[in-house]
Amino acid sequence: QVQLVESGGGLVQTGGSLRLSCAASGRTFSDYAMGWFRQAPGKEREFVAAIKWSGGGISYADSVKGRFTISRDNAKNTVYLQMSSLKPEDTAIYYCAADRSWRRSTVSPSTLEYNYWGQGTQVTVSS
After folding, report:
1. What is the DSSP letter of 27?
2. Across the 127 residues of the chain, what is the mean pLDDT of every consecutive 10-residue run?
3. Among residues 18, 20, 44, 17, which one has the least CA distance to residue 34?
């Protein structure tokens, strides 16, 4: 059973930075793409960023491009999301997710392609 545990959320002022981490266990981490999603109150869960199993093939939502950076350390079974220039509209619960497909050639922004999810970490950006 795959387990994903996020950490690093918190309260930050507009323009600030946070780094989220997601530690994975339960299967060969380096064989699967990883994604970050977020869900604000009253809204659907949305794609933020994803990274291919090999560390390349990175994709970002337009709303975070240039401000967020996704990375992974396969030796530590951990994926990161560095968030900078944070805005109040970035306030949400952030979830990491593991791809359902082994060594997918292109990362997917669809929640349907991820079958393991963490419990989420709250990020609040004050204005």
Report:
1. S
2. 96 98 94 97 97 95 98 97 98 97 95 97 97
3. 20
